[in-house]
Amino acid sequence: MSSTWHILGAGSLGSLWACRLARAGKAVRLILRDAQRLQAYQQVGGLTLHEQDTANHYAIPAETAEGDGPIHRLLVACKAYDAAPAIARLAPRLADGAELVLLQNGLGSQDEVADQVPHARCIFASSTEGAFREDDWQVRFAGHGFNWLGDPLTPALPEWFDDLHDAGIPAEWTVDILTRLWRKLALNCAINPLTVLHECRNGGLLEHLGEVTALCDELAELLRRCGQPQAAEDLDEEVQRVILATAANYSSMYQDVRAGRRTEVHYLLGHACRAADRHGLQLPQLERLHRRLVDNLQARGLPSA
Ligand code: NAP
């Protein structure tokens, strides 16, 4: 089985992973959106990773989904709403038993991907690392964090896991990946939409703690109903800790909305509301929040799903 890391999406996280793997001498190939993006990339000749005051260039080979050869190992590093369509295009190249690492935030996109490729193993990831694109093919490593990876269906550690340590990518294998993804989703639901609606930094929510607590109560109820009691524990306390610790920051959803970019709401608050519906749970605060957010996005001409 080939040990090449194919990386779909040379955006913020995809580039961060690609550069670190390439630096460690691992075989890496980028899969870009289309021929036009490939041509633009080839003119520049590689990715540049900015870390503090240093910038390093990595001449990583790239192709489109229509390139040749089977894919055995694929890091899926696009946004949640792009993941399933991108994998549908790539499916003919995925070898039997191929392993996919899904970096998408939220929940729902992982199952959409898995449905496209029943012959592949889907490994879910939850990342607290931070990166952003300074320009096309230029990524800045902005926040050190951690990566948890796990497979809800099979607990066995993938044979390539040491590649991550070799590349200096902080990562741990966990059997509780769904609990981690649900917890992160709940934190996101309690903070990000409110920062958009109140047009504030995370710290601005200190003036709306009643609203935050009411949401946390409903989110905790939802998590327990979804079989995730651990993800529900002390949710309100952690949300308040996060608000304080990140008081000066703008949430990722706020930044996306401000920049006129599509958000991942469908896989965050949208996923929570659909899960509540499936369980016949009435969660009025959460539903109202979702309605207000959808209206707000639509008024700005942004997709609300
Ligand atoms: P991003 O910077 O927008 O990058 C996404 C990349 O995917 C773009 O380069 C885009 O191509 C590419 N893409 C989309 N469809 C494609 C396709 N069909 N084929 C090939 N490439 C395709 O996004 P990101 O910030 O890295 O986020 C990726 C995921 O990680 C999201 O779910 C996000 O929530 C999560 N995450 C991000 C961070 C972070 O700090 N950035 C942290 C934690 C989690 P173009 O360049 O052509 O548009």
TrEMBL record:
<dbReference type="Pfam" id="PF08546">
    <property type="entry name" value="ApbA_C"/>
</dbReference>
<dbReference type="InterPro" id="IPR013332">
    <property type="entry name" value="KPR_N"/>
</dbReference>
<dbReference type="InterPro" id="IPR036291">
    <property type="entry name" value="NAD(P)-bd_dom_sf"/>
</dbReference>
<comment type="function">
    <text>Catalyzes the NADPH-dependent reduction of ketopantoate into pantoic acid.</text>
</comment>
<feature type="domain" description="Ketopantoate reductase C-terminal">
    <location>
        <begin position="176"/>
        <end position="291"/>
    </location>
</feature>
<comment type="similarity">
    <text>Belongs to the ketopantoate reductase family.</text>
</comment>
<dbReference type="InterPro" id="IPR050838">
    <property type="entry name" value="Ketopantoate_reductase"/>
</dbReference>
<comment type="pathway">
    <text>Cofactor biosynthesis; (R)-pantothenate biosynthesis; (R)-pantoate from 3-methyl-2-oxobutanoate: step 2/2.</text>
</comment>
<dbReference type="InterPro" id="IPR013752">
    <property type="entry name" value="KPA_reductase"/>
</dbReference>
<dbReference type="InterPro" id="IPR013328">
    <property type="entry name" value="6PGD_dom2"/>
</dbReference>
<dbReference type="InterPro" id="IPR008927">
    <property type="entry name" value="6-PGluconate_DH-like_C_sf"/>
</dbReference>
<keyword id="KW-0560">Oxidoreductase</keyword>
<keyword id="KW-0566">Pantothenate biosynthesis</keyword>
<dbReference type="Pfam" id="PF02558">
    <property type="entry name" value="ApbA"/>
</dbReference>
<protein>
    <recommendedName>
        <fullName>2-dehydropantoate 2-reductase</fullName>
        <ecNumber>1.1.1.169</ecNumber>
    </recommendedName>
</protein>
<feature type="domain" description="Ketopantoate reductase N-terminal">
    <location>
        <begin position="5"/>
        <end position="151"/>
    </location>
</feature>
<keyword id="KW-0521">NADP</keyword>
<dbReference type="InterPro" id="IPR003710">
    <property type="entry name" value="ApbA"/>
</dbReference>
